[in-house]
Design goal:
The chain is an alpha+beta fold. Helix content is 29%, strand content 19%. It contains 16 helices and 26 strands. Strand 18 (290-296) and strand 19 form a beta hairpin. Helix 3 (374-391) packs antiparallel against helix 4 and helix 5 (462-479) packs antiparallel against helix 6. It starts with 35 loop residues before the first helix and ends with a helix. It binds ligand 9MR and zinc ion. The site of ligand 9MR has 11 residues, from loops.
Length: 751
């Protein structure tokens, strides 16, 4: 309700100082400014006078529920605005957790050293406690200011003054825990709580510490890990759009400071995706192994990099080991990330009333969360198996996983962990495959064995079933030489899944999260590409004409989609082109679509100063996966029709991932001079250090989390990246982002 409409009877005024619990983590804001553009935005915002501005927009509910939302975790409640313009939270079931019911508001900031006053009005139909919090929105959710208060039928005005002491947070969350909060009556039944006039004022900004700790980026970006001796080598020099970049550059040996190569900066242009002036320093002619940096007179110097033969070995092992560390259901051995077996309980089936429970152990945790999702897992195993099929010599049996030394390449031991889980995801009765197994909600920042809520199998989907059939058929081919019984089991499972697809037409809606399940949806309305892929792999493995007939039917239509968890058309086309006879009726058509995608990748890479194949406006959630996928597709194209250009541009995609990008980041944790330190990855959050060898999602032009929205709006598309734990849309990791990286790294090394 708008202020002034009603005189409130203030029941109590609470003003307290605040002691902030030290958390041992770095100041999130000092980590936030990864580019110059971000730094400027932060400084500008800091100097703005906020003292007379209520930072809680629509805190009076005059615009209904605009900006207000509700989160539930085991509780249930409804949120509405009354005729008196108050927010009513009708709690039907307070659940068990204190945050089982939690209305919230995002979109304000708290600056270090600022003195704030927070206030609101509240009353309730029953006497109970609630816990309001101004908290970090992610990570360990630490409270910057919070209080448990007792409320009842009498309206009270809550006021709280505090000094922000623990680092600026540009995107905190205001929320009220309304579940089973400490001090609540045990028999808390259905009731309503009414809120109004939320206000947050900066009372005194004189003590605000302007953030001067910025991330050290570079204006000369290179592959921070390095280059093979005889490949194309390019650094990208940048400056403000419209300025001139010219002159010479030197390559300096960092061990003795000697200039080993000099050249001229070329191709000064405005690079659309990063909205900056760029030029190229080409030092391909330098082939002598060593450690170097690029030095210029006007644009500073680059981070160091190596030229050599074995430069990627360590990173490759680490990127592979990530899968071991993501394993579920078994004890993990590692100095830092070791843990007890997790998710060992049985699962219930969503919607099943018989009380049946199912054993669904093993597999890999998907990402920064501990869900296991079929379409995501299928993409990951497909990439790894394709990498093994194409570049088997890159994979040894001695990488230090428990199965090392068993005579089977470690990559296949690792993939089998996921395949064994996938086999348990198949409904034995119908052959259909459950879409995912997760708890209803994402867990807090805990180690996996501490996520002990009930596991639920989400409904069967045709996309999961199609991907399952395709990858099981692939597995049957790949494992035949090592374990023919297992290969047969995989093939039978693939056939059974395909049988399910035959009797289950597409509904053009696909999987949707049931209301009670809020974990990753991996929605996909189109399953034609999955069906096509399944048939193509079944045909490739068996050579059975029964599959070919149906496969050709699909092939005669337009197949779209890349190498994603959603669009899988390129996997299908690759399987088709590598197994069907080229004299077949639709071969040429499939070949044309496959290579049209390849040409488009080449074209985009050519247009971008960093040679990245994303396209100026096509930087989405997990953009680094798209880059790795594109590199992988080029190498797949090279497998079909050898072409040096494909291999070269694939390598340039790896250069981008390893540092030749506008953000100056090597996007693989633990490698390069500047790499992400605050991934949205629960084990890394718990241990306070980033697990190594994980490919981070990367810039997302669509700003899909509150932290990204608060800090990156001013940035160009390609620069919409921040190394912050709260930014799950930029800074998470997944198994299916690492997997195309494995293919890409194995491929550029082998070719
Ligand atoms: O990688 C997924 C990305 O393409 C989607 O845009 C996004 C939102 O639906 O979800 C991503 O997948 C997340 C999944 O839903 C849950 N586990 C973490 C995944 C990576 O962020
Ligand atoms: Zn687990």
């Amino acid at each position: 309700m708008r202020k002034g409409k009603q005189i409130l009877a203030w029941a109590m005024v609470l003003t307290m100082g605040l002691s902030m619990a030290g958390c041992g983590k770095k100041d999130p804001t000092t980590e936030a400014s990864s580019t110059e553009a971000t730094t400027e935005a932060t400084t500008e915002a800091t100097t703005e006078d906020l003292t007379n501005v209520n930072q809680i927009q629509n805190g009076d509910f005059s615009e209904e529920l605009t900006n207000w939302f509700i989160y539930t975790n085991g509780g249930s409640a409804s949120q509405s605005v009354t005729a008196e313009q108050e927010m009513e939270i009708k709690v039907n079931n307070p659940g068990k957790l204190d945050y089982a019911v939690q209305p919230y508001y995002d979109g304000f900031k708290l600056e270090t050293g600022g003195v704030y006053e927070f206030s609101f009005d509240v009353y309730s139909t029953v006497e109970r406690t609630v816990h309001w919090r101004l908290q970090m929105n992610g990570g360990d959710y630490k409270a910057y200011a919070d209080e448990i208060i007792t409320i009842n039928e009498e309206k009270q005005h809550v006021t709280y003054e505090f000094t922000m002491e623990d680092g600026t947070d540009p995107a905190p969350r205001l929320c009220v825990n309304m579940g089973m909060v400490e001090g609540c009556p045990a028999d808390l039944g259905e009731h309503s709580v009414y809120f109004d006039n939320f206000e947050l004022y900066l009372k005194d900004g004189s003590g605000i510490v302007v953030n001067d700790t910025v991330i050290e980026t570079s204006d000369i970006n290179v592959n921070q890990i390095g280059y093979f001796p005889t490949v194309e080598k390019k650094a990208v020099v940048r400056s403000e759009a419209g300025t001139d970049i010219s002159g010479s550059f030197d390559v300096v040996n960092v061990e003795n400071d000697e200039v080993v190569y000099s050249g001229e900066l070329e191709n000064s242009m405005i690079n659309e995706a990063s909205a900056e002036q760029t030029a190229i320093a080409d030092f391909s002619e330098l082939t002598t192994p060593g450690t170097y940096k690029i030095v210029t007179e006007n644009f500073g110097e680059s981070f160091p990099f190596e030229i050599g033969e074995d430069i990627y070995d360590e990173a490759f092992d680490s990127v592979m080991r990530m899968f071991y560390l993501q394993r579920c259901g078994e004890e993990i051995t590692d100095d830092i990330f070791g843990h007890a077996a997790c998710h060992t309980g049985t699962a219930i089936i969503y919607g099943d009333t018989s009380g049946k429970t199912v054993e669904v152990s093993s597999g890999w945790h998907d990402a920064g969360d501990y869900g296991r999702y079929t379409v995501a897992g299928a993409k990951a195993v497909a990439d790894l198996m394709l990498a093994y099929e194409a570049y088997g010599e890159s994979f040894g049996d001695d990488t230090g996983i428990p199965e090392s030394g068993n005579g089977v390449p470690d990559v296949l031991d690792e993939v089998r962990v996921e395949l064994e889980w996938m086999l348990m995801m198949q409904d034995p009765a119908t052959g259909g495959v459950y879409h995912k197994i997760t708890c209803e909600n994402f867990p807090e920042s805990v180690m996996p064995e501490e996520e002990v809520a009930q596991l639920v199998l989400a409904p069967i989907s045709t996309t999961a079933t199609g991907d399952f059939a395709a990858t099981m058929a692939m597995a049957s081919r790949v494992y035949e030489e090592f374990d023919s019984d297992f290969a047969t089991q995989c093939l039978n499972a693939a056939k059974k899944a395909n049988g399910y697809l035959e009797v289950t037409p597409s509904d053009n809606v696909g999987f949707r999260n049931p209301e009670s399940i809020v974990t990753g949806e991996y929605g996909d309305m189109k399953d034609k590409d999955e069906r096509f892929w399944a048939l193509a792999e079944l045909y490739k493995t068996t050579g059975d004409d029964a599959y070919l007939t149906k496969l050709e039917e699909y092939a005669s239509t337009r197949i779209t989609g890349g190498l994603g968890w959603q669009g899988v058309g390129m996997y299908g086309m690759y399987a088709y082109l590598s197994s069907v006879d080229s004299s077949n009726e639709n071969y040429q058509k499939v070949e044309e679509s496959f290579f049209a995608n390849i040409d488009s990748i080449l074209e985009k890479a050519k247009a971008d100063a960093y040679s990245v194949s994303l396209g100026a406006n096509d930087c989405t959630w997990g953009s680094n996966m798209s880059v790795a996928n594109n590199g992988m597709m080029l190498l797949m194209a090279n497998q079909l029709k050898a072409n040096e250009e494909y291999v070269n541009v694939a390598r340039l995609q790896l250069d981008y991932i390893m540092g030749t990008n506008t953000n100056s980041y090597c996007f693989i944790t633990g490698f390069g001079t500047l790499s992400p330190e605050n991934p949205h990855h629960r084990p890394s959050e718990v241990k306070g250090t980033a697990m190594e060898g994980m490919l981070i999602g990367g810039p997302d032009a669509n700003l899909e989390d509150p932290y990204a929205k608060a800090t990156l709006t001013e940035n160009a598309n390609a620069a919409r990246y921040v190394d912050n734990v709260q930014s799950f849309s930029c800074n998470e990791i997944t198994i299916y982002w690492n997997s195309p990286l494995v293919y890409l790294m194995a491929g550029v090394e082998a070719e």
